[in-house]
Design a protein that fits this description.
Elements (H helix, E strand, L loop, with lengths): L6 H12 L6 H26 L6 H13 L1 E3 H8 L3 H13 L3 E5 L7 E5 L1 H21 L5 H20 L1
Antiparallel strand pairs: 1-3, 2-3
């Protein structure tokens, strides 16, 4: 569901509220737009693709990570997905209960656990991801190939800059 205020209205209201502060409004507006776009995409993909499969966004990210990298230690999964280890514990429990993920105890250190997709988890991802990608394609359909490349490169630059900070 879209926000009840347009981006322009939100930017104007922000400026009106805090114009007396020494702020970089261009940066604030750029990142606010990025954040709002990210939330809109996440909500749309969750509602259209993940919810019918009884998956949360975080559950999907965990499964995606394990699908791509096959087996990972829990702390690395949490870091990759951007969640706490405690949050991952609950998500992994849900996915394990559903038979989509399995916990593999470490043979080196019994305190460590790896996560892997089960055959059912792999099958779900192979069925789910084409649906997910079809919606991704619709979301960016109004961009030209040049705009898509530019957007991708600019977002990568923001990620790289943030990771250096």
């Amino acid at each position: 569901m879209p926000d009840k205020h347009t981006l322009e209205e939100a930017e104007r209201a922000t400026r009106d509220r805090v114009e007396h502060l020494p702020l970089d409004f261009a940066s604030a507006h750029a990142l606010s737009s990025m954040f709002r776009a990210s939330n809109a995409v996440r909500t749309h993909l969750t509602n259209e693709v993940l919810r019918p499969h009884d998956l949360t966004w975080t559950g999907f990210l965990v499964m995606w990570t394990l699908w791509i990298w096959e087996s990972m230690e829990t702390r690395d999964v949490a870091e990759s997905v951007g969640i706490s280890k405690a949050t991952l514990t609950g998500v992994a429990k849900t996915l394990t209960t559903r038979g989509l993920v399995e916990r593999i105890p470490s043979t080196v250190d019994r305190r460590l656990v790896n996560l892997e997709l089960t055959p059912s988890g792999i099958t779900l991802m192979e069925r789910l991801y084409p649906e997910f990608n079809a919606i991704e394609s619709k979301i960016v359909a109004d961009l030209s190939p040049r705009q898509m490349t530019l957007l991708t490169n600019l977002l990568r630059k923001i990620v790289e800059t943030t990771e250096r900070l």
